[in-house]
Amino acid sequence: MESCASGASEDADRSDSGAEDADEALAAIHERGAEIRDREVETALAKLDARGDCSAAERAAVERLADRLVARLLSSPERSLRAAADDGEHDPETVETALSLFGD
User: Fold this and answer.
1) What's residue 17's pLDDT?
2) Which of 44, 55, 71, 102 is the most buried (most CB within 10 A)?
3) Residues annotated as region Disordered (predicted)?
4) Domain containing 87: what range?
Protein backbone atom coordinates (compact mmCIF):
# COMPACT_ATOMS: atom_id res chain seq x y z
CA MET A 1 0.00 0.00 0.00
CA GLU A 2 1.33 3.42 -0.97
CA SER A 3 1.51 6.17 1.63
CA CYS A 4 0.47 9.77 1.01
CA ALA A 5 4.07 10.87 1.38
CA SER A 6 5.12 8.46 -1.35
CA GLY A 7 2.39 9.76 -3.67
CA ALA A 8 3.44 13.33 -3.01
CA SER A 9 7.03 12.39 -3.80
CA GLU A 10 5.96 10.87 -7.12
CA ASP A 11 3.99 14.02 -7.98
CA ALA A 12 7.05 16.14 -7.20
CA ASP A 13 9.19 13.86 -9.38
CA ARG A 14 6.76 14.26 -12.28
CA SER A 15 6.69 18.00 -11.76
CA ASP A 16 10.51 18.17 -11.68
CA SER A 17 10.67 16.02 -14.80
CA GLY A 18 8.22 18.32 -16.58
CA ALA A 19 10.26 21.37 -15.60
CA GLU A 20 13.45 19.67 -16.76
CA ASP A 21 11.83 18.68 -20.07
CA ALA A 22 10.59 22.26 -20.54
CA ASP A 23 14.03 23.67 -19.67
CA GLU A 24 15.73 21.30 -22.13
CA ALA A 25 13.21 22.18 -24.83
CA LEU A 26 13.65 25.90 -24.19
CA ALA A 27 17.42 25.57 -24.38
CA ALA A 28 17.13 23.75 -27.72
CA ILE A 29 14.65 26.30 -29.06
CA HIS A 30 16.81 29.25 -28.01
CA GLU A 31 19.90 27.61 -29.49
CA ARG A 32 18.08 27.09 -32.80
CA GLY A 33 16.83 30.68 -32.73
CA ALA A 34 20.37 31.95 -32.14
CA GLU A 35 21.70 29.85 -35.03
CA ILE A 36 19.08 31.22 -37.40
CA ARG A 37 19.58 34.78 -36.14
CA ASP A 38 23.35 34.57 -36.59
CA ARG A 39 23.07 33.12 -40.09
CA GLU A 40 20.52 35.70 -41.24
CA VAL A 41 22.41 38.63 -39.71
CA GLU A 42 25.58 37.45 -41.41
CA THR A 43 23.75 37.21 -44.76
CA ALA A 44 22.16 40.64 -44.40
CA LEU A 45 25.39 42.31 -43.32
CA ALA A 46 27.34 40.66 -46.15
CA LYS A 47 24.83 42.07 -48.65
CA LEU A 48 25.04 45.53 -47.10
CA ASP A 49 28.84 45.35 -47.03
CA ALA A 50 28.89 44.33 -50.71
CA ARG A 51 27.12 47.58 -51.51
CA GLY A 52 29.75 49.42 -49.47
CA ASP A 53 27.33 51.54 -47.51
CA CYS A 54 26.95 49.85 -44.13
CA SER A 55 28.03 51.92 -41.15
CA ALA A 56 28.80 50.56 -37.70
CA ALA A 57 25.53 52.05 -36.45
CA GLU A 58 23.58 50.30 -39.20
CA ARG A 59 25.31 46.99 -38.44
CA ALA A 60 24.35 47.38 -34.78
CA ALA A 61 20.76 48.21 -35.79
CA VAL A 62 20.52 45.04 -37.91
CA GLU A 63 21.84 42.95 -35.01
CA ARG A 64 19.40 44.56 -32.52
CA LEU A 65 16.51 44.01 -34.91
CA ALA A 66 17.42 40.33 -35.29
CA ASP A 67 17.70 39.91 -31.51
CA ARG A 68 14.27 41.50 -30.96
CA LEU A 69 12.62 39.43 -33.69
CA VAL A 70 13.94 36.16 -32.28
CA ALA A 71 12.95 37.15 -28.74
CA ARG A 72 9.41 38.06 -29.84
CA LEU A 73 8.97 34.90 -31.93
CA LEU A 74 10.14 32.65 -29.10
CA SER A 75 8.26 34.38 -26.29
CA SER A 76 4.98 32.56 -26.91
CA PRO A 77 6.35 29.00 -26.90
CA GLU A 78 8.51 29.92 -23.92
CA ARG A 79 5.48 31.15 -21.96
CA SER A 80 3.52 28.01 -22.85
CA LEU A 81 6.30 25.67 -21.80
CA ARG A 82 6.97 27.57 -18.57
CA ALA A 83 3.25 27.64 -17.72
CA ALA A 84 2.93 23.89 -18.25
CA ALA A 85 6.00 23.25 -16.08
CA ASP A 86 4.87 25.71 -13.38
CA ASP A 87 1.43 24.09 -13.21
CA GLY A 88 3.14 20.84 -12.35
CA GLU A 89 1.74 19.21 -15.45
CA HIS A 90 4.10 16.91 -17.26
CA ASP A 91 2.83 17.31 -20.79
CA PRO A 92 5.27 15.67 -23.21
CA GLU A 93 3.00 16.59 -26.12
CA THR A 94 3.45 20.33 -25.42
CA VAL A 95 7.22 19.90 -25.32
CA GLU A 96 7.24 17.81 -28.50
CA THR A 97 5.00 20.30 -30.32
CA ALA A 98 7.17 23.26 -29.31
CA LEU A 99 10.30 21.43 -30.42
CA SER A 100 8.77 20.43 -33.74
CA LEU A 101 7.69 24.00 -34.44
CA PHE A 102 10.67 25.91 -33.10
CA GLY A 103 13.48 23.43 -32.53
CA ASP A 104 15.57 21.45 -34.97
Assistant:
1) 61
2) 102
3) 1-34, 78-104
4) 4-102
